């Protein structure tokens, strides 16, 4: 959790949960990344899904429009972004960032506009990150769609 009040600006993590977050890099869920993103978001004093970095660029309005659209897709069941991301803009930013760092190629494929926005926010080229976790063709897809991997995100090539 990210603290408020006297704990403001402090990050408290459960060591087992932190390790668990990095153990499976295909599930787009990582408590360390998630909570750290809240700290990044709070750099301007508010945890609002609007990172301070956006204030320097002209794409702040497109960011809000994109977040709104993506939250609506989650609410309508038309997204493989974790449902918790639809809670509010701050949680969307944290959940989308988990996805960005854990499954960048999948995010780029399924949500290219979001991938590009996060690439600009973080100034990171994560497209080269390759997960070494193997998913069986008939296993549930790690993207959370509840489909089989072969029918969802298994690369076609």
The radius of gyration computed from the alpha-carbon positions, rounded to a whole number of angstroms, is 16 Å
Biggest beta sheet attributes: none
Residue windows where pLDDT falls under 50 for at least 5 positions:
none
**What would CATH call the homologous superfamily?**
Collagenase (Catalytic Domain)
Structure summary, number of beta strands: 0
Work out the helix count.
6
User: In total, how many domains does the architecture comprise?
Assistant: 1
Order of helices and strands: HHHHHH
Shape: globular
CATH class: Alpha Beta
Topology-level CATH name: Collagenase (Catalytic Domain)
Beta percentage is under 5%
CATH architect. name: 3-Layer(aba) Sandwich
Structural class: mainly alpha
Mean pLDDT: 82
Helical percentage: 40-55%
Cα(first) to Cα(last) distance is 40 Å
Brief summary of the model shown:
By secondary structure, the chain is mainly α.
Summarize the structure in words:
The chain is mostly helical and 157 residues long. It is 43% helix and 0% strand. It is globular and about 50 Å long.
